[in-house]
Queue: 2 jobs
Job 1
Amino acid sequence: MPVRRPAALLAVLALALTGCGAHVAPDTDTAAHRPSDRHPVAITNCGTRTTYSRPPRRVVTNDVGITEIMFALGLEDRMAGYVMPDDKGDLAAVPWKAAYDKVPWLSKKAITKEIALDARADLVFAGWNYGFGEDNGLTPAALKKLGIDSYVLTESCRKGPGGGARGVMPPLEALYTDLAALGKLFHVEDRADALIARYKAQVAEAAAKAPAPADRPSVFLYDDGRDKPLTSGKYAGPHDIITKAGGDHVMKDLNDSWTTVGWETVVARDPDVIVINNYGDTSAARKKAFLESYAPLANVSAIKHHRIYVMDYADLVESPRNPTAISNLARYLRGVHTG
């Protein structure tokens, strides 16, 4: 069982979250209070302060990373179901297989208001472009009119109302922020604290073995796209995964999460390694074949030396798989010699 953290440590955590895009209101309750006594709970999520009158009991999640954040916190019994395409890898070998078996898979298509209503959801946990969007009419404001609360994935926070660019903090900080906020909302602070401590220790262990900055291989994340590659800026998961694993993220100057760049930028930055995001209709093998046959990339170091590394989608979006993904990539990068 996780050990309850001292009150002083919880206070420090709450202060650390202030101004990070999501923070929780100070808790004035004592351990003797029942969960019902500890609501309402106020949380500032992506710059919007929301008061939740009671712990959600019928949560609908969108996509694999978001779903697994709930599972990692042991909250599958608070879920009405999840929405996820079936292109997100093998779910049978993940630590949360039992939770996947227990929670209904509501749809393999896009999440909609109708899905939430049919599931009698009291909260939808999704992200901007991870389910929420004005184009599909699914927004926290629209759900509120239906009596359904929302929580927005912090990795996806937009920089302003209607803004295109996303991301307001480093990716791992976004993960820790969501774990702490959801721990508060569902009264599982001890679980959240234990996960955050474990993940930070795992990341620190990998980072401690990283080479000196001057010796780090440069890394480009390739999601998909032929005319223009979709990649990661500094606010999406791959930035921290690459950096903490001992790589130099070549797109670290992009003030966005997931976005497109020009191939000429990739060529100019000449990455030593290309990481492929494995998901979608185009297989990792086809993505690799394209990269190796695309003439403008012929002289890029990663292509010349056949340094292409494949990672699963769920490793690269904000999720509880991020720390293990860092450890695995770190092992690969330690074997890369760029001299």
Note: The chain has two domains: 7-200, 210-334.
Job 2
Amino acid sequence: MNGSSEPSEKGPIYLDYNATTPLDPLVIEEVHRSLIEDWGNPSSSHELGRQAKAAIERSRASIARMLNANPEDIVFTSGGTEANNIALLSAIQSRSSLDNSKPHCISSNVEHDSIARVLQEQLRLGNIELSLAEVDQDGKLHLEGVLSLIRDTTCLISIMHANNESGVIMPIDEVGDRLQTINEERKRAGLRRIIFHCDAAQTIGKIGVDVEELKVDLLTIVGHKFYAPRIGALYVKHLTTGSYPIQHVFQGGGQERGFRPGTENTPMITGLGKAAELVYENLQTYTETMRKMRDLLTIQLQNAVPGIRINFAGVADKLPNTLSICIPDGLTASFVLNVGCKDKLLASLGAACHSNTEKPSAILLASGLSPAEASRTIRLSVGRTTTAKEVEEAVKVLKQVCLGGET
């Protein structure tokens, strides 16, 4: 395995890999090489430009191979937020331009803000109608709960592949499979096709992500979640045929074959491609290692800390690296992490973008936890290089904080 989370002798234990991952050493090497060798403008016709362009195309092919996609269907973006914005706004605007009816969108009530806030803003502006499928008390989304919301004016369904806080994997393949049949029926009835988008930020590099198996039209790729640079990409099925028109979120030149303006960040793109290669070659090892460390963490915490509860314990289909725990009554997760474990254990209350708020996570509340339980919940997420020693040290720190005494 490559990459290392091994702390220094006095350094903290890092268990926040759902928030971000370090660059794999091989990715760093590739980025460094590209900074030196691929500095030409990819749009230039001279040798340096062609070299940079070739590096980008190699990365596009690597990402496509990881997803079982076609290289021409990959568009590079600045990150997952931009990819999600492009996906949603493109689907909405393409429908709006076809007829006078207001587009209807379907999502879930546990989406990341880069999905939820875009849709809420479009709703506020009066551009769409919106329905949210609700997860059950185990944080699971059910197929029929999604399909029951479909209307004649539905233009988009956008659902995350796995939730970043609970780790629960959503039934994307089931929705995709049924939606194919539904779209065939809609075509015969003269209704517009429903576009299916999936935010795969939390699953790439942890479990298999195959766009053909998932039957998605659009899929978001986020590099910093799988040991790549903070850059992203969007998969668009049949992109070059115009089946799913891409709308620019900003204006500029004709880069990325006219689908995403702005001079390409070649070194970061090559890093993303290298990270995709590593996932393609080592996914089974990564998955097994993370699951082993997560299970070890689960067992040791249950044995060491009386009163601790594992959230979503009854859900089988979860990310192999994610553990949501509810600490014993009388403590808050904020105190445990920010005071008791400070400089010893690095983890999250939930999504990293909400780490500075004292409010209970809306995702956890929607997933069946009470406000009191949500305020005592900590998300621990292991990485592909997390060791048994790190797990033992993390458990020791949490035990001492939860049971009292100096750490």
Note: The chain is about 40% helix and 15% strand.
